[in-house]
Design a protein that fits this description.
Distance between the termini: 77 Å
Bound molecules: zinc ion
Largest sheet: 10 strands, antiparallel
Shape: globular
Radius of gyration: 25 Å
Number of domains: 2
Structural class: alpha+beta
Low-confidence stretches: none
Length: about 500
Amino acid sequence: MLQLDGFSVEQAAFMFCAAAVQSGLIDEEERAYCLNGVLDILQLSAPQEAASLLPLSRLGEFLVACAAEKGLCQDTEEARERFSVRLFGVVTPSPRAVREGFARLLAEKGSQSATQWLHQLGVNNEYIHTHRARENVSFISQKGLEVLISIYQKERDPKATHTRPRSAVGYPYCPLCRENVGYAGRQGYPARQNLRQVPITLGQESWYLQYSPSPAFSQHCVALRGQHSPHLMVAKSFDKMLDFVDQFPHWFIGANADLPVVGGFILSHAHLIGGKHVFPVEQADAWFAFDPGVPGVTGEALRWSITTLKLISKDRAPMMEALALLLARWRTHSDQSLGLVARTTVNHNALTPMLRKTAKGYVCYVALRNNYATPEHPLGLFHPHARHHHIKRENIGLLEAMGLFVLPGRLKQELQAVERFLQGQEDLNWDDPHREWAEGLQQGLPESLDAAGVTQYVRQAVGQVCEEALQDAGVYKQNAQGEQGLQVFLAGLKA
Ligand SMILES: [Zn+2]
């Protein structure tokens, strides 16, 4: 039988619940109740007391290993993960207790304390994968983009969006539906017994707030509509974003574009993305000022590769009006000289907005997006071009548009192979997707770089690819022709 630092599984089960009390997940009154739940799923007849206390995460890992040994769960990574979530679900407060706890803190101490508490709950019960985040690779590019190679990010096809349920089971209907709370999971679909949400009201609709299980930044959260309905950007969407920052002024809120390839992966369920992060775009200099066409709102085009406008308004109503106007005008704006086609049989123009509330008032960063594809660029004229796909083939979503590039986990190993290639330790296959790029890097490789220097050199080169991919996605390039084209569009706001 397995042991953990000399402790038996019965002792570990006892300590698991004691540690859950100590972390604040459950209170002492509930300990026996939760322990019985743990004994049940581990098929143990009785616990054994232990005076010691080990970290909850180590105890959880050990109990999962015991379950796999006993044949209570399959010995695959996915099945172990599901069992672990089930175990942590037992020591997670009920949805009602979480709702009430959040509401109490909100009333007594404000939204910052309440969201911090909900976040800590998700960290403690391992819903938020902070332990795995340590394996991620992150660095800053020469021009200030943040690059994150996320080990839990599987690369997705830019054209694939959740327009229908993932499998014949059809339940939960989509990954953002409320029915995920408490769901046991199945092969190919994660368990969510440790997921908790709290209700919020946005645009007079019933929405829910939860954290992302795989955060790309601090307090990465998602607001999702209570009802399963498509993610569409209309004037009312801005009302919801404004409601959000009025309630959570310590966070930004943003939305993906509502079209495939330039939008997020889940277009079937209305949602917003928020959190504590400050994005590189917020440091960008002004390119030129413009009049957004609504009194009380000032506008600036930014020196930023993907065309981004910054709107500032002291008051809420003018900001709402300016964003609605911008959306309406942009939806129909074409420019033949730049290959910008607003509409064929479907819409091609969309916005990627990110809003926050500051001492100056509401500040909104809005990226102008277009997903029109040409024979030369079948994934989109304003999508990362083919030569950048070995690094970034996926959508330029909200995070990338604002300067945080989330790259697929496969790159962690692939870039190590490129480093070995540059150090002459290993060849790359002739059909390796990085081969051509790596050969170019080899030519520019400074002499006498040590291993750490080569790592830095490759990271800077990845950063360079991200910068170029962002330029590809920009409708109006940062040159005279781009400026002229953008001025023409912006002049239309006053018409
Ligand atoms: Zn849904």
